Amino acid sequence: CETVQDDENTMSILVASDVHLGYIEKNGERGKDSFVALEEIFTIAKERNVDFVLLGGDLFHENKPSRKTLHTAMELFQKYCLGDRPCSVKVVSDQAVNFGHTSSSITCVNYENPNVNISLPVFSIHGNHDDPSGAGELSAIDLLSVTGLLNHFGKQTKLDVISLSPVLLQKGTTKLALYGLEKGSMRDERLHRLFLNHLVTMLRPKESLDDWFNVFVLHQNRSKHGATNYIPEQFLDDFFDLIIWGHEHECLINPQWNPIKRFFVMQPGSPVATSLCEGESKQKKVAVVKIRGREMKTDIIPLKTVRQLYVENITLADGVHPPAGSSPEAIEALSQAYCEEVVERLLLRAQSQKSGHPRQPRKPLIRLRVDYSGFDIFNAYRFGAKFADRVSNPENIVHFLKKSVKKIRDDLDVKDMDDLIGAEVVENVKMEDLVQEYLNSKDEKEQMQVLSARGVSQAVSEFVTKQEKDAIKELCCHQIKKTKNYLQEQTFNLDQNEIKEQIKSYQTERLKESSTKESQELKEILERTK
Amino acid sequence: CETVQDDENTMSILVASDVHLGYIEKNGERGKDSFVALEEIFTIAKERNVDFVLLGGDLFHENKPSRKTLHTAMELFQKYCLGDRPCSVKVVSDQAVNFGHTSSSITCVNYENPNVNISLPVFSIHGNHDDPSGAGELSAIDLLSVTGLLNHFGKQTKLDVISLSPVLLQKGTTKLALYGLEKGSMRDERLHRLFLNHLVTMLRPKESLDDWFNVFVLHQNRSKHGATNYIPEQFLDDFFDLIIWGHEHECLINPQWNPIKRFFVMQPGSPVATSLCEGESKQKKVAVVKIRGREMKTDIIPLKTVRQLYVENITLADGVHPPAGSSPEAIEALSQAYCEEVVERLLLRAQSQKSGHPRQPRKPLIRLRVDYSGFDIFNAYRFGAKFADRVSNPENIVHFLKKSVKKIRDDLDVKDMDDLIGAEVVENVKMEDLVQEYLNSKDEKEQMQVLSARGVSQAVSEFVTKQEKDAIKELCCHQIKKTKNYLQEQTFNLDQNEIKEQIKSYQTERLKESSTKESQELKEILERTK
After folding, report:
1. Which residue among A399, A427, A455 closes a domain?
2. Which of A87, B65, B122, B446 is the most exposed place for a label (fewest CB within 10 A)?
3. CB contact under 8 A, B138 and A64
4. Cα(A363)–Cα(A412) distance, integer angstroms
């Protein structure tokens, strides 16, 4: 839109997401990539003189970032966000409601705090990596917000019904209502169900409803990972003008028009490739969104310090033609030579596509997805060692796969090789699902009686991914207490066997309850998608 | 000294130490005690209008404080240390040297940072609980310093020679040279040795040497825990006017005059009882030290929100006199009744000694050290349950001991029962010593060949007390690499047995080296103490 100019009525916002600070921080080669990316984002924000930075979650990679990562993040915020530049965007909503959810000491947006001198405000929701956990239900980004370095918005405290109160921002005549949805520890399925049941409500400004430009920031699965564990765009309210979709790492930041809902969707993606897949190999970008009244204009800005990533799918059978009677060693040598050729070609491409930015890392990431059907695999580690000086991931350049016979289900959106090739799917299996499957596969005799497989798998997940040392203990205490209470209510003078029976029937009851809920959901979905 | 008045030439400093933020934070009763203590310290500092707060280390209890503890600490610093009050103490030394040791982004004392508005400056060294660890060698207090909330001084980076550069402070005509000694991960023994060998140097201001009031803050063992793992006062330079001694939890904050060294020693102690011993049961206090020129005056201020602690040593044989032929049950009932009587007496005393401060916790800590010689022990947990509503530590009110026959060594300073009663000594045994003893006690066949018992015990300690997940892995990698290098240098074409021999002789060599060092130290000590 050409009417949007830089003037006192135009709000300009740098949009980015999923910086994953501290990602593989101990890797000597790549450990600093996430911090370099944040510095570039902040530098662009300052050069473009934006009013604020808006982040879509997963600022930190680990739920409990290391001290070093926290410290470096704080240094960067200190360096780029403090200073004498005045902020001309006013917050006209209740600031304590918007930002004070985790600490009563936060009563306003950071740049109105008289004790901290903010030049570049940052607004962020948390993501699934840096979601709240432990005592006080705090996220790692709350350590930035309590020290006045970041404005954390969008926190939900209820699990059964969600009502979102926007941050209302005003610059001159332009009014922006900023909604954030943080699911916290809520599973995608549950949020999906809340949307289905119309239990997610957007609060609207009382006055001059049509003057507001409405932005919704969320951090959820956007691609289908199953029937219910993603959020379809059609779930979202159509009064929104712009959706900023965090969590998905592929950069699709050019606003995509949804003609049914009549809003734009921007998916900033991540500046750091946390998995070596095709989606991550696309050019990484951020955007400056300029809003004037209800009009919007977007400048897309490629990031120049991001480590290059090239992913190539090859099939040994296509490129390797050993003469009949070749020895296994000779065939292996040919396979390796073929793969080396591809790596060399990708390295040449990387060289020619360098951004020229002095901080762009010299060594790219290279990933060959090698279909080796009909061949033997070779030592991928030794293969990679040859490129140790030129590739930043020599240990895993080659990834061997075999085309699986897995049937492609028509009802799933198959976007890339990952859905086709069985071996790769393993990478996406969640540990908690494995635990649950394992526990459920036990003989009846060996099955747990007080705990549920689902509860244990979730507690194990908390323990491992969030390093919540007490998660399993707490689950056990909770469930034992609940079962004891049930027994006290239900039973009078039972002998040991009868108590066992009662415990069993209590568990069956609980299981039935939760599966009824799930089947209801499925029914609703089916009805809706008809 | 009566010449010290509040005027523009008088520097006034609130002195405290060992706040141990986050101590047993999950304890519903006592988990907040450390935070209440810090609030009281800050409140006193503001009421007394001091120029700054000076802390002697162990601000945090855990090396890796929980997110909740960090967050609460930051909230408190935000609440009490930010604001519009000007600070009239100037730093005249090189501020980047004083405070920028952990981050190049810290270039000055926090109240000269134009982007943070400090009303109450805090200066602190770290202690043994919050000492630096992990990547970047950062302490938990560095997260406060990088966000401008605290001035972290006294960091040493070298392990072989220490030279302390003071923070030079000036207010009007008064000049204060503030020295801090942080040993980091250095063992007390090593520091002891450095002092003995005159490898600890205090840098002095170049001009008007005699005008400076010299304060030394250290966080070390002050009481003898053995021949060399403490720092005797006579090791310290005699140009100091005041020593502030952190680490020891007993409050001995009234300045003690050392007539030989001609300096005062203040031991602030800890406001939170982390062990239920006699030293901790003394009244907890802080001090306001006023300095004018080379004169000093001290106001001692009792803390009013500290949880009361009463420790009493009783001997069942003294108070329980069962009639001849009493049943064991009857004797137990009498023992319990005797103990209950003592608890009731202590509770009455606690009631009468309440400070009257609304935030002082209602329930005191009570510890009976019960010498049960000649009697059976009873269930201490069930005993405590009777006092659950009136005592904050019902689970461990009673501590059973037997007078041990352990010989009291004349060369040790025996201050309290702990040194006399064998059972109690176990509490003070260090886990790393146990590991080392265990490993050394193995048969020769089972002894480790590449690692040393000392190395493993230290790595285990890092792993457990600092939650350094990679400590053991790193030790193994380091030692294997060193041994490999040694073998490559020493050997040509050895067979397997010969290699084993070489590894063994290498280990013996290393052991000899380190024990030579130790015996040298002992010799030096003996010579010195003659």
Report:
1. A427
2. B446
3. no
4. 36
Residue B5 lies in a domain: no
The ipTM value here is 0.82
**Integer Cα distance of B474 and B480 in angstroms:** 10
- Domain end residue (candidates: B427, B458, B476): B427
Which of B132, B153, B16, B123 shows the shortest CA–CA distance to B63?
B132
Mutation choice for A interface testing from B60, B69, B71 by most A CBs within 10 A? B71
Is A455's Cβ below 8 Å from some Cβ in B?
Answer: no
A138 vs B26: CB contact, 8 Å cut-off?
Answer: no
The answer to whether residues A407 and A477 belong to one domain is: no
Query: What is d(CA A165, CA A205) in angstroms, rounded to the nearest whole number?
Result: 9
Looking at the structure, tell me whether residues B409 and B444 fall in a common domain. no
A412 and A521 both lie in a single domain: no
Nearest chain B residue to A22 by CA: give it: B135
Tally the domains of chain B. 3
pLDDT the model gives residue B244: 97
Cα dihedral sign, A121-A126-A127-A129 = positive
The residues of A carrying an active-site annotation are 129
**Chain A residue whose CA is closest to B466:** A67
Together in a domain, B135 and B184: yes
Q: Given an 8 Å threshold on Cβ–Cβ distance, is B83 in contact with A115? A: yes
Q: Is residue B6 part of a domain?
A: no
B385 assigned to some structural domain: yes
pLDDT single digits (tens) A176-233: 999 999 876 677 788 888 888 888 999 999 888 899 999 999 998 888 776 777 889 9
Do residue B101 and residue B132 come from a single domain? yes
pLDDT value of residue B345: 97
Structure tokens that stand for A491 in this block: 């039973």
> Contact A68/B26, CB-based, under 8 Å?
no
Contact with chain A for residue B345, Cβ under 8 A: no
pLDDT at A506: 79
| Ranges A17-21, A23-27, A456-460, B323-327: which has the least confidence | A456-460
Beta-carbon contacts of residue B333 (< 8 Å; ≥ 6 apart): none
Cβ-based contacts of A71 with chain B (< 8 Å): 102-103, 136, 138, 142-143, 146
Among B78, B141, B145, the strongest candidate for a mutation testing the A interface, having the largest count of A CBs within 10 A, is B78
Task: Find the CATH number of the domain harbouring A154.
Answer: 3.60.21.10
Q: Do B20 and B43 fall within a single domain?
A: yes
Instruction: Indicate the average pLDDT of chain B.
Output: 87
| Strand, coil or helix: A58 | coil
Task: Quote the DSSP letter at residue A256.
Answer: E
pLDDT score of A36 = 98
What percent of chain A is predicted at pLDDT more than 90?
62
**Alpha carbon of A14 to those of A42, A286, A295, A359: distances in Å?**
9, 7, 16, 21
In a domain, B153, yes or no: yes
In a shared domain, residues A53 and A140? yes
Summarize pLDDT for B119-151 with one digit per residue, the tens. Answer: 999 999 999 888 888 888 899 999 999 999 999
B438 — pLDDT class (breaks 50, 70, 90): confident
Q: Looking at chain A, which residue has its C-alpha nearest residue B77?
A: A147
- B143, A105: Cβ pair inside 8 Å? no
Which residue segment(s) compose the domain that B470 sits in? 430-529
- Point out the least confidently predicted range of A356-370, A405-419, B425-439: A405-419
| Domain shared by A150 and A262, yes or no | yes
Asked if B146 lies within 8 A of A71 by C-beta distance, the reply is yes
Three-class DSSP labels, A85-114: CCCCCEECCCHHHHHCCCCCCCCCCHHHCC
pLDDT tens for residues B389-420?
Answer: 999 999 999 999 887 544 444 444 444 434 44
Query: How many other C-beta atoms are found inside a 10 Å radius of the C-beta of residue A226?
Result: 11
Q: What confidence tens digit (pLDDT) does each residue in A27-74 have?
A: 999 999 999 999 999 999 999 999 999 999 999 999 999 999 999 999
Question: What span, in angstroms and rounded, lies between the C-alpha atoms of B286 and B45?
Answer: 10
